[in-house]
Design goal:
alpha/beta; Glutaredoxin; 5 helices; disordered C terminus; Thioredoxin-like_sf
Length: 120
């Protein structure tokens, strides 16, 4: 998203794990970091320790959320998503985006928005 562009409502998840996620929670004084991942993505799993470190280090300064995007039929299993999240220490809310509705809402490379930008 570009500066001063309003963040869309994150609707369309078939399930939410580890709590809820709403646009209102993500816009504010703290920037939002949205981590897109998939259970079948090896690079995603390699990056999870860094995402978890970022989340822990900046929890008071950023809102960290995750969106699971399936890459194959195997990835549609919510039990597998939950198990993988537990194995990799993903404790932030996860939107399970099995129908790719959320992915279409947020332009590639987007990660942050502020309350000031939302109000502009």
């Amino acid at each position: 998203m570009k500066r001063r562009e309003l963040m869309p409502e994150l609707t369309g998840a078939m399930a939410t794990l580890n709590g809820t996620v709403s646009r209102d929670e993500l816009i504010g004084e703290k920037p939002a970091f949205i981590h897109f991942w998939s259970v079948s993505c090896h690079l995603c799993k390699e990056a999870m320790p860094q995402v978890n470190e970022f989340r822990g280090r900046y929890k008071d300064k950023h809102n960290v959320r995750s969106v699971h995007m399936p890459r194959s039929e195997h990835d549609l299993d919510i039990g597998l998503v939950k198990k993988t999240a537990e194995e990799h220490g993903i404790i932030q809310p996860i939107l399970v985006n099995n129908e790719h509705k959320i992915t279409c809402l947020i332009p590639k490379g987007s990660s942050a928005i502020s309350k000031r930008a939302a109000a502009a």
